């Protein structure tokens, strides 16, 4: 049963919610997680970055995740026409793990929230947050269960980890449009039957459409022999590719020679799903008695698989601040939470911008990259986007501009 008061109320039981819940419950606080769905539930966002492993360890969930025996991942491979480049995360600039996993999120997310529960958090499934009263010491949530019964929950602090639900962004009118162009993703799971010896299951494969460099594909192999496949493109290009989402996805996949070859014997295992308008921004990530985590705040673009990393980073940044605030310290959420979190997001944004205007593609496929530069790029792609010692973090745009220019001249283009 939902008790009427708690120290910390958390909206959403995805990775951000589970990580914050585990950290705070382990620290001895009463934590209530409100989740509108029932787990296990499907979620997109299946390729993690090595930086995630640090965060999972910090909140005590690494062992829970390890028990899932997920597909190991050590890098990202890219293909465009006849070009192929593999980036190995183990050969990177920043300290920290160089490997991670490719996960079926239904299983992964359930393992995390069960781990949070074992740490002492109470988790309520089938409960939606429908209303919110901000207050510096006593914020209040309105809840509705599946029988339509309403409850109120008084907390001392609220963390919104509602992902695409964007609960507090909507209720507190904090939504602000993303500066990124709208894109559509079509995706499914397949029994992949990939036999090609050269195919590396320990890397995500990102393919670029031969004629349109802003359309790209993903192939994320799982340990089970299944894989996640998808395409990201402009909404009108998606519409023009067929009469149904199923046709659209498969027609687009067949236009890329490597994907077409690799997926020749693939058997679909899920209905094709389409989502668009997922890039989102927000005025601010905190207010009286609340802070906003993960996708419920800012979400950029899936190309570098940064979503779960940002979600976990935000949770591990917020949780110790909540503790300090509840112990009576004055916390400047702008300086201690929002600004440093957004710095890492800005690094990813510089990389996303450079991807879509093709500077980054030029850099990735350049075959005479100095080792140190390659390691710095690998670090950011491995999720170490907050490491200010890396010049591609501290001056991302300028460094990407000048490196792309150098690759252009060096390639004799
Ligand atoms: P979520 O995992 O979305 O969890 C939010 C939870 O809140 C949900 O369980 C939801 O049911 C619950 N909720 C919502 N509203 C309410 C409410 N009113 N009351 C109670 N509960 C509520 N990221 C990666 O790291 N790697 C990838 O490869 C990757 N690929 C992607 C591909 C695409 C096409 C897209 C669009 C995104 C991708 N992402 C990827 C991003 C990833 O999906 C998200 O960043 C990640 O799931 C965010 O985690 P979260 O904990 O913030 O939210």
Automatic annotation (TrEMBL):
SUPFAM superfamilies: FAD/NAD(P)-binding domain. Residues 6-255 form the FAD-binding domain. It comes from the Bacteria. InterPro entries: FAD-bd, FAD/NAD-bd_sf, Flavin-dep_Halogenase_NPB. One of its GO terms (molecular function) is FAD binding. It holds the Pfam family FAD_binding_3. This is Tryptophan 7-halogenase. It comes from Halomonas binhaiensis.
């Amino acid at each position: 049963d939902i008790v009427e008061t708690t120290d910390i109320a958390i909206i959403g039981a995805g990775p951000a919610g589970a990580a914050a819940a585990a950290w705070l419950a382990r620290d001895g606080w009463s934590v209530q997680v409100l989740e509108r769905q029932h787990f296990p539930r499907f979620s997109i966002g299946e390729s993690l970055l090595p930086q995630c492993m640090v965060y999972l360890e910090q909140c005590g969930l690494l062992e829970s995740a390890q028990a899932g025996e997920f597909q190991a991942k050590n890098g990202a491979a890219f293909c465009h026409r006849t070009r192929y480049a593999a980036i190995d995360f183990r050969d990177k600039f920043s300290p920290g793990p160089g490997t991670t996993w490719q996960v079926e999120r239904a299983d992964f997310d359930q393992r995390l929230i069960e781990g949070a529960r074992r740490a002492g958090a109470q988790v309520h499934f089938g409960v939606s947050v429908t209303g919110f009263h901000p207050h510096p010491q006593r914020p209040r949530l309105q809840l509705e269960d599946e029988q339509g019964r309403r409850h109120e929950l008084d907390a001392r602090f609220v963390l919104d980890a509602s992902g695409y639900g964007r609960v507090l962004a909507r209720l507190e009118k904090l939504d602000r449009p993303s500066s990124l162009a709208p894109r559509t993703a079509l995706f499914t799971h397949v029994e992949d039957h990939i036999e090609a010896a050269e195919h590396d299951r320990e890397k995500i494969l990102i393919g670029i459409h031969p004629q349109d460099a802003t359309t790209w594909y993903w192939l994320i192999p799982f340990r089970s022999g299944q894989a996640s496949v998808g395409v990201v493109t402009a909404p009108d290009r998606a519409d023009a590719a067929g009469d149904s989402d199923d046709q659209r996805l498969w027609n687009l996949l067949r236009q890329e020679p490597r994907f077409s070859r690799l997926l020749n014997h693939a058997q679909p295992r899920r209905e094709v799903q389409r989502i668009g308008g997922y890039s989102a921004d927000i005025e601010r990530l905190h207010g009286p008695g609340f802070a906003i985590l993960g996708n419920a705040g800012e979400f950029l673009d899936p190309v570098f698989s940064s979503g779960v990393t940002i979600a976990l980073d935000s949770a591990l940044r917020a949780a110790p601040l909540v503790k300090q605030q509840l112990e009576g310290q004055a916390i400047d959420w702008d300086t201690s939470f929002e600004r440093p979190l957004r710095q890492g997001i800005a690094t990813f944004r510089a990389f996303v911008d450079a991807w879509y205007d093709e500077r980054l593609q030029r850099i990735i496929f350049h075959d005479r990259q100095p080792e140190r530069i390659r390691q710095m790029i690998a670090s950011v792609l491995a999720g170490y986007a907050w490491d200010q010692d890396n010049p591609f973090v501290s001056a991302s745009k300028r460094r990407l501009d000048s490196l792309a220019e150098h690759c252009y001249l060096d390639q004799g283009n």
